[in-house]
Specification:
The protein is mainly alpha-helical. Helix content is 82%, strand content 0%. The longest helix is centred in the middle third of the chain and has 37 residues.
Length: 249
């Protein structure tokens, strides 16, 4: 038997096209059964394509949702040609999968940079890993990682290097701060070198030599005193008050 004069195979194909056209038309008009028919027709096709790309569960769900949204827009706008809709849906699903591959590579690079930054920041900052990883993921915890996220990860590395440099500077400044905070050590730093110079001059030229060099010796002390005051201002350090310490004791 034939339909409209077509062979049996041609009749079945024509009937399928008529059915697809009817589904598209009904879906475009907002009919729920029309959409259900399109979903039943293309769900397996979309998931079979997505499976070939070996995406993560989240990436696969995003790709499927994006494909369905594209189909929704095309059907509502009546732009899709029904007899080519299968090919169009397959191509759209592949495009959505390919779009997520660069994002995955970017996510991997960003994560590695963040791990490097955590390592560089040092062990004395245990909470920084969770903080940076949460910021990288976004407020929802699963925002797509883009080029902006990659730049943020590079910023983490720069921040970690700054932290380590700050730690090294604190270690280097520790003895200086100890001198600046202690009145005794500060006095030794200011008056010690001039006293040594005076003793050296005395051993070489006697008391008269010390008197003649008093101005130069005093200049040395003045310079050292100025360095102490400059250091306290620069490091925002104040010498300990011995009266307050004794009262506390």
């Amino acid at each position: 038997m034939s339909v409209a004069g077509l062979p049996q195979g041609g009749a079945e194909e024509a009937q399928a096209h008529l059915t697809l056209r009817a589904l598209v038309s009904r879906a475009a008009d907002g009919d729920a059964q029309g959409w259900r028919g399109l979903i039943d027709r293309y769900a397996q096709l979309i998931w079979s394509i997505i499976k070939e790309y070996k995406l993560t569960e989240r990436e696969a769900a995003d790709a499927a949702q994006a494909t369905w949204m594209c189909l929704l827009e095309h059907v509502i706008a009546r732009l899709a040609v029904p007899d080519r809709l299968d090919t169009w849906v397959a191509g759209t699903a592949e495009d959505q999968c390919r779009d997520r591959l660069p994002a995955r590579r970017t996510a991997t690079v960003s994560q590695r940079l963040t791990n490097m930054a955590v390592f560089l920041a040092g062990r004395n900052r245990p909470g920084i890993r969770a903080e940076w990883q949460a910021h990288l993921a976004g407020e929802s915890g699963h925002d797509p990682v883009t080029g902006r996220k990659l730049r943020e990860a590079l910023g983490f590395v720069a921040a970690a290097l700054k932290c380590r440099l700050s730690d090294a500077a604190d270690v280097a400044w520790a003895p200086v701060d100890a001198v600046l905070k202690s009145r005794t050590l500060s006095n030794i730093f200011v008056f010690g070198p001039p006293a040594v110079v005076a003793l050296f001059i005395r051993s070489a030229e006697g008391i008269l030599g010390v008197v003649k060099s008093a101005e130069s010796v005093s200049a040395i002390g003045a310079v050292l005193y100025g360095l102490v005051q400059l250091g306290r201002w620069w490091r925002d350090v104040k010498p300990r008050d011995p009266k307050a310490r004794r009262a506390k004791e």
